[in-house]
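quick one: zinc ion bound model?
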Amino acid sequence: MSVPTSVVGFPRIGSDRELKKSIEGYWRGKHGIDDVKATAKGLRERHWNIQRKAGIGLIPSNDFSYYDQLLDTSILLGAIPQRYKRLALSPEDTLFAMGRGYQGEKGDVTALPMKKWFTTNYHYLVPEIDDSVSITLAGDKPFREFEEAKALGIVTKPVLIGPYTFLKLARRPEGAPLAIDRGLIDQVASAYASVLQRFASLGADWVQFDEPYLVLDKERGDIELFKSLYAKILPSRRAQEGSVRLLLQTYFGHVGDSYETLALLGFDGIGLDFVEGKDENLAALAKFGVPEQTTIFAGVVNGRNIWRNDYAVSLGILDAVRKVTSRVAVSTASSLLHVPFSVANEDGLDEQVRRHFAFAVEKLDELKEIADLADAGDEERRASESLKRNQSLFDGRRVTADESVVSRIAALTEDELNRQPARSERQRLQREELHLPVLPTTTIGSFPQTKEVRAERAKLRHGEISQEEYDAFIRSQIDAVLAKQEAIGLDVLVHGEFERNDMVEYFGQNLNGFLFTKNAWVQSYGTRCVKPPIVWSDVSRAKPITVAWSAYAQSRTERVVKGMLTGPVTILNWSWPREDITHEQQTTQLALAIRDEVLDLEAAGIKVIQIDEAALREKLPLRKSDWHAQYLDWAIPAFRLVHSGVKPGTQIHTHMCYSEFNDIIRDIDAMDADVISFEASRSDLTVLDAIQDAHFETEAGPGVYDIHSPRIPSQQEIEERIGNILDKMDASSVWINPDCGLKTRGNAETWPSLEHMVAAAKAVRARL
Ligand code: GLN
Ligand code: ZN
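yep, here:
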């Protein structure tokens, strides 16, 4: 019998981002929802067929989504808060209202809060269970999509986010914690039980429930919760008309602390991540064994990176698993949602380079080849062409080290990791130097990247305009955005980042060591996609990157202009990192490159420099016990290395795209920035309590309005927000700013929103 193959999930946005384009076209009124539905159906069909042709055994369905799979789950379970139901919109528009807010003739509501999906750069919408909600199986999306595939002759493996993960991520309104009581557990368990029964009667063979929350540290009662849910759910695999097998899928880490429970419960399949949780998962298998009826789905193909799989490593893992059980399937380690579509279109990369990469489509072939090799005897493996081809990628060194980078790192001293003098002393000096009012207003850096800006960049790329013409255009954009910021009365201005397509790609393009793709897009949230660069070899700065733009902007105004950089941890986290040297090594290289830029900005007269670490939290290990040793202990010093060389009067800002740092608040202070801005308007404000309790020293600007939505906040609303902030923080350390950069917004909503923000700040200031 050959080894079965299973894909945890496949990207849905389309090889050419068709889904994004179609949905955004609908939002702009370009076409109706039927167009979107047709595009979606076409994509599902194409993606199933690609997997079928690649010989994949268990092809996922219901991994498709218009916006987010957790939002789909909420809707499936009837968890639609009153305020969205009251709008009385169509099902699709209700979904979009929950995802991105709604402001129109039917009402005015903000979107659900959005959070990062575990350690990825994907964002999910937080399920909200208010008092009006009782959980039942309220929708039919998974069944419709199963039948749709079946009509094409493909019996898929439907995929749902499991009940445990759903409940652990769900909140009450306003982000309040959810009390998971008996009644709720029963409701959720019976909804999922009905799902299994429906699939049994529809003729599904396997159903996959994703329970990534299992890879987190357990709190009291977690294991009990898991058991009570599944004790109810598992028996409904057998319905009157047939039966299904249930695959319990975990990913992004190991389940060493719960594997014994999983084994006892008697799942038909257990999916384990052997990329991110290899040692602990193997140890758990060896210790507790595998029940007779259970198949282990060995996740050996990385769903989180784009490098070719090392077959020898994967076969080693499979052989180890097979020492414990003969029932093994080969699987992706997580959903392929987090990698781009296909390498095939990357004709800009040299074949010698390109052969090192596998995106989603290529990973399907890897799965199949690994499964075939797993089946083969030693003799056959030795003779295998696919194995030889694969091994040639890993023989010897892929790239040679850059000696100047290596020696610079070797010569680093402890002093270079620490800025002098202490922050309180700096804050005093900076106040004198910058002449800012209390509650200073600023923005996070970017202003709307209009069609016009993108068109000019495209013209430059296609050689239709000269570099001089392009630069003149950017300067005119800077002039205009400075004038507008002055007009509405912002205190610390920005140049607008018009020269950047993306805060990471732009720096990558100007550093040695990076590679770029044409079309390697990955979904970030809703219809937003990102195209991370690839770290290919050692990183260093070839020449100044942003200095000319910032210096130009500062020369055009009397007010302070903030310079704008991306920090080393974020550049790495939003790139495809190398697998042949550590993340720490790569981050240190990046820190030195950005440090050069910081010092050049200062020398050019820039007094405030923001170093964005939007993604600092993203790669925080999922288990607390690993936080410091495996990450913070080198990531935080790397940030300090970037700015430790500036003068005391130069103000260093940082920015983060989230506010969940209650638990790492001391580490945030240890970054030793002078000011931090962070996203806050869509999150609960418990971070303010933490700031208060911890006597946080860094001045802080919790975002006062949401920029992920086109909605315009009123002045009053922002004043109230500032009031909430001042309840918890001393006015002398508060900054007023939006949640994040304004690049994805239009000018139509940006300027009124900022006007309201500045007016709100002034009104509150007057009352102090
Ligand atoms: N400075 C960047 C901007 O304003 C920050 C973006 C981000 O945090 N994602 O766009
Ligand atoms: Zn941000």
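The chain has a mean pLDDT of 96.
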